[in-house]
Design a protein that fits this description.
The chain is an alpha+beta fold. Helices cover 33% and strands 30% of the residues. The protein has a single domain, classed as Alpha-Beta Plaits (2-Layer Sandwich). Helix 1 packs across helix 2.
Length: 69
């Protein structure tokens, strides 16, 4: 299992609710969470080997930014 971390602009619970249906549809994401208390709003994704660009593009589709850290 691989852990990917992204700096995002997912700032609050409402933002998390907006991205939830998008991230839940991605095959290859076992588990994900956003630490909105962290100043970088870190999205952590557990995956068996997903290309990070898939997560970045998924958040972009939902109207958010993500950058691999």
């Amino acid at each position: 299992m691989e852990t990917l971390k992204f700096k995002t602009n997912v700032n609050c619970g409402g933002c998390v609710a907006n991205v939830t249906p998008h991230l839940n549809q991605v095959k290859g994401i076992e588990k994900w969470e956003v630490d909105t208390a962290n100043p970088q709003k870190v999205l952590t994704v557990e995956t068996p080997g997903l290309d990070p660009e898939v997560v970045i593009d998924t958040l972009k589709t939902a109207g958010y930014k993500a950058e691999l850290i």
